[in-house]
From TrEMBL:
This is LysR family transcriptional regulator. Belongs to the LysR transcriptional regulatory family. Transmembrane segments: none annotated. GO terms for molecular function: DNA binding; DNA-binding transcription factor activity. It comes from Baekduia soli. Gene3D superfamilies: 3.40.190.290, Winged helix-like DNA-binding domain superfamily/Winged helix DNA-binding domain.
Amino acid sequence: MDLRQLTYFRAVATLGGFRRAAEELRIAQPAISEQIRRLEAELGTTLFDRSTRPVALTPAGERLLTHANRLLSEAAAVLEDMRGFATERSTLRVGTLQYLTLLDIPEVLSRFGAAHAGIELNVTVGNTGELEALLLRGDLDVVIVHTEGGVPGDRLTGEPWRREEVAVAVSLEHPLSGREDVAVQELADARFVTSRVGGLIRETFRARARAVGFDPEVAFEASDVATTLSLVGRDLGVAIVPRSVQALHADNVVVLPLRSTTALDVCLLRDAHRTPTPAIEAFMGFMAKTGSNAPSSGAR
């Protein structure tokens, strides 16, 4: 078994077929099929159910995919680490929550780049669920995401960067706009502008809403906070948002604290099963010096 076979195996597993994997990797389909057959022969088990379309992983294949993701991620880290010695430059792939790119993250990344000229930054934007999936797949080195109650799971490790209060954004025409704060149950009849599935604020608010007897009605699903606040400003719905977005001063929008809700952590996470490169260690250390454990209610 070698890394090439694991690369082919993961491509077939994630793309759902040999043809699509061949196209993605730009190699002949028979070459992939032959390597998968050799891998199955060496392991003494079938990895794919080829009777289905798309092909499906067997239980053994599901287990191997977990190992393959870890091994390929570690191999990529080794290669990147060694390239750093050869070229005195390395690449750090950072994932961050979208709304933070409108607040303090650009300045923080600029300061890091100035202090570490040998590290090239590649930045990916997404929500918590999307970024954690990319991290565990080995496509990112470090992510800045929301967590609730500390670092999640055994595969992830890291540190809280700061606290983030949860708030509700409403238009100035909304009946609640003059309030000092809002209780969750007061939003039972509201229509919501939400983030995509995978956003932790969306998921935690839904759980709290259901706990008090209602399921939030989604009017719009937006991929970025600027669109969310624009829709709210036109009184097309309310939105559950990080309280720090009030620093954006969106037109015709007021951001109000949500009563009796738990603040989330903004955490810096990496894959615990992967040896951190010097670039990862440098970034984690730098971010630890810039963070704050105080709840965030505005721009930092």
